[in-house]
Each structure stands twice: as structure tokens, then as C-alpha cells.
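Feature request, filed as a ticket because there's no other form

It would be nice if the structure record came with a short human-readable summary line next to the C-alpha cells. Right now we just get the raw output. Example of a typical job, pasted below so the devs can see what we mean:
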Amino acid sequence: MKIKYPEIGICGLSCRLCPHYHTEGTSRCEGCKTESRTGAGCPFITCALKKKGLEFCWDCEEHETCEKWRKHREAGKKVDSFRSYQKLEDDIAFIQKHGVNEFEKMQKMREHLIKEMVREFNEGRSKSYYCIAATVMEINELKEALTEAHKNSDGWEIKEKSGVLHTILNEIAQQRHHYLKLRK
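Raw output as currently delivered:
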């Protein structure tokens, strides 16, 4: 089977917004449908990819009645794993309305913003936080925060620069009711 979108999870999560995708070295995950991940015990890889030859759950004839996918989506409304599931339902709805190509374009923009945040504002402990922000916030909000953080931290050390971006992101999140932590 030819995989067209290795960075878009079978269940609808965007691998591009995951901290493990942005890890340096051998522990880096390149996406849910890459060779290194397909050996993992993910039930969606086993069912959709291996058994049915489908790239996404929503391509399955049984997607509307699939108990496994329903439970995953319901859990995603309340809790996260090592990455945020807060927008999973919105992402699935977007894909079903606009298609995978449009979703991937949007995720590439978000990934670009994560890379900028990590490159310019990561003091070594903020990558996961920036990935959550890129998942739950609107693209224009992220761009606005980065523009303001660059302006307000020019010439500063990385720890202070990180604090500036955190403050700006937190203020926007509070105003717009975004939650920038993993839900346990």
C-alpha cells in the first residue's frame, strides 16, 4: 500500500504537531504511518492499515459505527496522552469537509510555526508547550504571538525570550479560552 500522508495519523491526529515528531536523534517519530511506527501496538494501524489497507479511519465503511474509533474520539474530548487531542474532533470535521490536502497545508503552516518557536524561543523545556499551542490556537494567533515576542525580546537571552513568548501565548489563550496544558 502506498502511503500518501505519513504525517497525518490514521485516527485524525496531526503528527506534525507532536513533540516526538520534533525530537532530534534516533527517538524521532516521523509519523504514524512510517515504517518505524507501523510495528507499534496502535489499534488503528492494525485495523485500518494492516487489515483493511486504508490510510484513514474515515475511509472505512464502518467508520460511523466503529466502537474503537468512537471511544478514541470520546476520550480525546477529555484527556491527552503525550500530545494534545483537544482539536481531534475539529480536525476530523475539517478533513471531512475540506479534504486531507487542505488539512495537510494547514498542518504544514502550524509545523513551520512550531519550528520557529523552538528555534527562537526554546530554553530546552518548552517544545511540548509550543506543540500544544500550535495544536489548539488559531494560526493567526500564533503568528501574532511570534511577531510580538520577536519585537519584545530582541537581544535577550533565550530564557528571557522564552518567558516573553510564554506570557504572550498565555494571555491570548486566556482571552480566547484555549487550554495550553495536557489534560490528564
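Something like this underneath would help us a lot:
The first helix runs from residue 35 to 38.
The helical segments are 35-38, 43-51, 67-76, 88-98, 100-121, 127-136, 139-152, 158-176.
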